[in-house]
Amino acid sequence: MGTDDRDGGADAVREIRVRAFVVGPVLPNDDAGRTPEARLEEAVGLAKAIQLEVPHAEVVRVNRPDPATLFGRGTVERLGGIVEAFDIDLVVVDHALTPIQQRNLERALIAKVIDRTALILEIFGARAHTREGQLQVELAALTYQRSRLVRSWTHLERQRGGFGFLGGPGETQLEIDRRLISERITRLKRELEEVRRTRSLHRAARQRRDTPQVALVGYTNAGKSTLFNRLSGADVPAADQLFATLDPTVRRVELPSGKRMVLSDTVGFVSELPHQLVAAFRATLEEVQAADLILHVRDASHPDSEAQAADVAAVLAELGIDAERDERVVEVLNKVDRLDATRRAALMMRAALADGRAVAVSARTGLGMEELLALLDQRLDGGRRVVELDVDLADGRTLAWLYEHGQVLHRDDADGVAHVRVALDPADATRLTAGAMR
């Protein structure tokens, strides 16, 4: 693309393509839960999530990590040849790099180098659209950046038009002052504390109205947004890509019994999710901690489904939630429509025997949704009995008692009578029947 094209405005900027070389290092102590090839495939997916062009990707085994470059000298030279041969702009190393390793690799490869954490943060920066999401991502990005103060490379930000914490237009190898970053982090934390307080007030209001809260969690691209849309009738963007949505969404959902619940969609998890992100998204993730039920949405068709579930469990553990023992956690085994008939039947049998801790569904086709809704009704009922009765509108005492002690699911006033359907605890239902209300 010539100089004239680069100066042609926003459309020309969006046309700039960054060619990325994705390297998947395999170290001796790495998690054996996934194959190196599967991990590399996910890393390529992460790169493509922000429209990086990936002409080459490969697994590189590292028997003895070099403190200076991670890879041995011969490997670095070979990687440099690949960078030159494919005219690479950006090298993505699917592993954590120290600031020294990043700087030395950039010098040796003559290309911008980022590690897995920086790549995930860049994706979050490009995808966060609400003010809250942008604050959380900027806090995570600056916390990460403060430890390394890398030079600015403008082409990645120009190509994406996204958050651009790795550099901004017009900057030329600028070292960001540590004091200014620290001051900005302090301001962001203050603003996010306000967000946290506001969310806490909203949760308290919902609890006062006795509205159960259900949170969706899961590995990125497990189908959370599709399930959220299916349950709530919302239109949250749902795409077959990693981190398709980041911004938290909350909707009211009415269950078949008439009971209402509040459903919240949360950010997707991923293996080695940067700690900075977990800390920055604390205000959002508190929705999970406070939930009455936590639906762990899993892609049952993914070959690494078990490893992904372990990664989600690790993040939940950071929030103080034991996915194995916490009775609030229910596995939603999604995408069963992608399985053959034998595997689908086996999975649905497994869910049926899980004693209310699992359900097999396809959020895309609607398969299993009746079972999921019935499970939600059952788990959120808390042993309550649904009672239908007619109350004279002049009997304000009884009506007030019903609203105070139960959850009025439906009310229809006609001819001086209130036709009420209300969910009551067994003891209160007995008092009502015996006329012993106090």
Structural class: alpha/beta
Low-confidence stretches: 1-15, 150-174
Q: Describe the biggest sheet?
A: 6 strands, mixed
* Beta fraction: 15-25%
Could you tell me the radius of gyration in angstroms? 26 Å
Level-2 CATH architecture of the largest domain: 3-Layer(aba) Sandwich
The fourth-level CATH homologous superfamily of the largest domain is: P-loop containing nucleotide triphosphate hydrolases
What is the highest CATH level, the class of the largest domain? Alpha Beta
Nearest-integer average pLDDT: 81
Number of helices: 17
- Ends: how far apart? 80 Å
Shape: elongated
Notable characteristics:
17 helices; six-stranded mixed β-sheet; elongated; single chain; Rossmann fold; alpha/beta; 438 residues; four-stranded parallel β-sheet
Verbal overview:
By secondary structure, the protein is α/β, with parallel strands linked by helices. The chain has three domains: 158 residues, GTPase HflX, N-terminal domain (Rossmann fold, 3-Layer(aba) Sandwich); 172 residues, Rossmann fold; 50 residues. Helices cover 44% and strands 19% of the residues. It is built from 17 helices and 13 strands. Strands 6-7-5-8-9-10 form a six-stranded mixed sheet, sandwiched between helices. The chain has a four-stranded parallel sheet with strand order 2-1-3-4, with helices on both faces. A three-stranded antiparallel sheet has the order 11-13-12. The longest helix has 31 residues. The N terminus is likely disordered.
